[in-house]
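> forwarded from #structure-qc
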């Protein structure tokens, strides 16, 4: 099985030597002298896997208010973002579609330059509902095809007059077969999964006609998903990191809904991240995003609606973290204890046989 590979430009990355400084700062020793990677990441870099070309930097749209969409996406696309991640349940697909139509009609961008992903909602996790959901997202977004379509969560829900209930009969394989039919009809270019574990992915790999090209998972310095990343590398599956900055607004979101926080520290407030950022003359967010990109086979989709943050999040390609910095950031992994999105978000699913965490 071929490992995930990168397409890069040949533009070199600027880095400076600071071995002695970092040895004192982090207490590391025996690090190699600074050297640039064999190839340089740029904002045009893509992860190429199973026929999919996934831009390494994208803009997330969860919690992006409908009235914020046009300004945020026009700014992002103008700055070079080409990867837009959304989902039906985010409630802003229509506004994203309106913005894309506006930009294409005004020749600000053309459709083939964009990579757009959406997701099958949890309350439509039945094969007979797949076509309807895909068609609805295409209509909302004003598109004839999606570059990537993912199953949002491995556990389905059922609507009833009393609210949502967990579906005990979610059938991943039946859903996947119907998604494959949508690929064969030309409505979807590539398929992927969100929040699935290795067992669940393996079950799909064993019977799929269209293999999963992407896995989207929570990933940041406190939740680095090493085993899942290794599994994906072995099976030529690109990884997309959601909440790569830890989602600074998550606690407010949970509080507003009366939900609980997992009390994971904020990555942006990490002292070592701040020190690296200060030395590099970068923002902590840039250090966090650059770290994930340098792990290889990982794309990042930070959500931002403020123009300054959108700009900051794509200015990742004029510096390179060295081995001491990578080792220090890698040591911050809290494994499952670092997960911000668990049963506190996916309410009532923790006892389901398909609970992925």
């Amino acid at each position: 099985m071929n490992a995930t590979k990168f397409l890069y430009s040949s533009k070199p990355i600027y880095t400076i030597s600071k071995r002695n400084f970092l040895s004192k700062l982090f207490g590391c020793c025996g690090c190699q002298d600074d050297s640039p990677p064999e190839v340089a990441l740029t904002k045009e870099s893509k992860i190429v896997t199973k026929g999919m070309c996934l831009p390494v930097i994208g803009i997330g749209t969860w919690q992006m208010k409908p009235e914020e969409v046009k300004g945020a996406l026009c700014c992002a696309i103008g700055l070079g973002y080409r990867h837009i991640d959304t989902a039906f349940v985010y409630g802003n697909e229509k506004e994203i579609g309106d913005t894309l139509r506006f930009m294409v009609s005004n020749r600000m961008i053309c459709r083939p330059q964009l990579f757009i992903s959406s997701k099958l909602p949890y309350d439509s996790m039945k094969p007979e509902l797949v076509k309807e959901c895909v068609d609805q997202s295409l209509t909302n977004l004003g598109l004839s095809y999606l570059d990537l379509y993912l199953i949002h969560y491995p556990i389905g829900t059922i609507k009833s007059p009393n609210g949502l209930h967990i579906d005990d009969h979610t059938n991943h394989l039946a859903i996947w077969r119907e998604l494959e039919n949508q690929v064969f009809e030309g409505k979807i270019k590539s398929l992927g999964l969100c929040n699935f574990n290795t067992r669940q992915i393996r079950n799909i790999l064993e019977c799929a006609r269209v293999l999963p090209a992407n896995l989207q998972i929570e990933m940041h310095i406190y939740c680095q998903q090493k085993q899942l990343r290794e599994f994906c590398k072995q099976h030529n599956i690109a990884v997309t990191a959601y909440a790569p900055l830890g989602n600074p607004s998550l606690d407010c979101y949970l509080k507003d809904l009366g939900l609980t926080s997992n009390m994971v520290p904020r990555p942006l407030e990490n002292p070592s991240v701040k020190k690296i950022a200060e030395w590099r003359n970068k923002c902590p967010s840039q250090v966090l995003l650059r770290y994930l990109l340098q792990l290889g086979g990982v794309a990042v989709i930070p959500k931002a609606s403020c123009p300054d943050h959108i700009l900051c999040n794509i200015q990742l390609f004029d510096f390179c973290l060295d081995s001491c910095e990578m080792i220090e950031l890698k040591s911050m992994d809290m494994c499952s204890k670092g997960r911000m999105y668990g049963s506190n978000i996916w309410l009532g699913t923790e006892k389901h046989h398909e609970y992925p965490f």
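QC bot note: Residues 6 and 47 are 5 Å apart (CA to CA). Confidence is low (pLDDT under 50) at residues 1-38.
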